[in-house]
Task: inverse folding
């Protein structure tokens, strides 16, 4: 276990520190809000029924623990890579590698899911083509520099929050909610609530984008611990307001069957004129998530390439734009291929398993911090680790099997490479 943060040896160019707290917060908001509100509510309602809000609360508790653990670790190790770096430094090279592998693979699937969400809202008949176009466009934005990405994300978050506020006000002030109740009925089971929490956790995971930008924020020891809980807190408030509003007007059964829950909610509330605005907001939100996700995956790819767990050529930093341009281009190309062929529901389930595995390593890493290193209260990493494992294995069976298989394949590749290196 290393006592000091590691720095890549022989790296001629470092990423430029240009992001402050507001920029870091909006990058997290752009990922969390876009992914959760428009993609996870209906599947979670199918799993939990009237226990949806309990699932949301469980997801928030696990997310808070993960955010706290990640913030303390990010302040200690302000380098690109997030939990890949934390696991390597605190638990050993294998655990860092496994976290990085789970993040890159899982979030690549999440990028594809967000791109497909754009396509489904903008042009359902050509969803895959629109998804690929979105990936190409946002990869180009990231290539030109992270500051441009932060400004675009700020604009996207403002638009999405305005749309969500309009939905909440319109629904709560309509007469359609007066007779509705939020009681937990017989359709809510413990397993269903856990599965809903796992699906909703996918929506909270955007704060990882802040940690993976460790080399690009100013004063990371102060900026990262402040930005992560701020982004998570704002997102939780938005999630609760929207979830309560939609449940009141649709009820759990209609929400579970909805393909576009917020559009259905405003129509049921008698304000169908807002529906085009909601659809546009959904597309913008998914674009915000996609922008931040590509940003985070490319930074973890950069960190793993520096350590030669991925091709070392991907560790290059552009001399002018100061971004990992090769990693961004490769990530964009892979996401475009997946978006052209994948199903959005399968991509979300697969991503959730990988992300929960990633945060399990983060909590285990935070447990090893000393008080002098800013260790959180012991209960936080314990609850976070147990919660991640419980939610991961409560996901649909197909997601658990495929996710475990991919993690196992990554571990096997690591073992083979280690064996080959010891024999040479």
Result:
């Amino acid at each position: 276990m290393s006592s000091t943060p590691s720095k890549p040896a022989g790296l001629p160019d470092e990423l430029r520190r240009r992001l402050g707290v507001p920029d870091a917060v909006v990058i997290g908001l752009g990922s969390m809000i876009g992914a959760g509100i428009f993609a996870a509510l209906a599947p979670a309602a199918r799993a939990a029924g009237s226990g949806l809000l309990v699932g949301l609360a469980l997801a928030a508790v696990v997310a808070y623990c993960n955010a706290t653990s990640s913030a303390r670790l990010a302040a200690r190790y302000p380098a690109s890579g997030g939990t890949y770096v934390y696991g390597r430094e605190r638990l050993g090279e294998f655990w860092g590698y496994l976290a990085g592998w789970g993040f890159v693979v899982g979030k690549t699937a999440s990028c594809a899911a967000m791109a497909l969400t754009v396509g489904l809202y903008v042009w359902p008949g050509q969803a895959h083509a629109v998804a690929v176009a979105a990936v190409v466009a946002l990869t180009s934005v990231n290539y030109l520099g992270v500051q441009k990405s932060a400004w675009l994300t700020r604009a996207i978050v403002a638009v999405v929050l305005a749309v969500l506020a309009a939905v909440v006000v319109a629904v709560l002030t309509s007469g359609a909610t007066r007779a509705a109740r939020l009681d937990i009925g017989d359709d809510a089971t413990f397993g269903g609530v856990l599965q809903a929490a796992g699906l909703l956790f996918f929506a909270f995971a955007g704060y990882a984008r802040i940690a993976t930008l460790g080399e690009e924020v100013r004063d990371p020891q102060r900026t990262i611990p402040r930005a992560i809980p701020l982004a998570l807190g704002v997102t939780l408030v938005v999630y609760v307001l929207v979830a309560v509003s939609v449940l009141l007007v649709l009820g759990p059964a209609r929400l579970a069957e909805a393909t576009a829950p917020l559009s259905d909610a405003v129509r049921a509330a008698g304000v169908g004129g807002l529906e085009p605005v909601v659809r546009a907001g959904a597309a913008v939100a998914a674009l915000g998530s996609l922008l931040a996700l590509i940003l985070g995956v490319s930074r973890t790819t950069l960190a793993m390439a520096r350590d030669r767990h991925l091709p070392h050529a991907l560790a290059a930093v552009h001399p002018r734009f100061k971004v990992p341009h090769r990693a961004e281009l490769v990530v964009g190309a892979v996401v475009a291929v997946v978006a052209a062929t994948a199903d959005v529901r399968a991509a979300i389930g697969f991503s959730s398993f990988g992300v929960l595995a990633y945060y399990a390593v983060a909590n285990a890493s935070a447990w090893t911090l000393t008080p002098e290193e800013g260790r959180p209260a012991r209960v936080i990493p314990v609850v976070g680790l147990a919660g991640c494992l419980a939610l991961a294995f409560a996901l649909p069976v197909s997601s658990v099997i495929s996710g475990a298989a991919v993690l196992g394949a990554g571990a096997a590749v690591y073992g083979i490479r280690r064996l080959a290196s010891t024999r040479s």
Q: What stands out?
A: Confidence is low (pLDDT under 50) at residues 2-13. The radius of gyration is 20 Å. The CA atoms of residues 28 and 207 lie 5 Å apart.
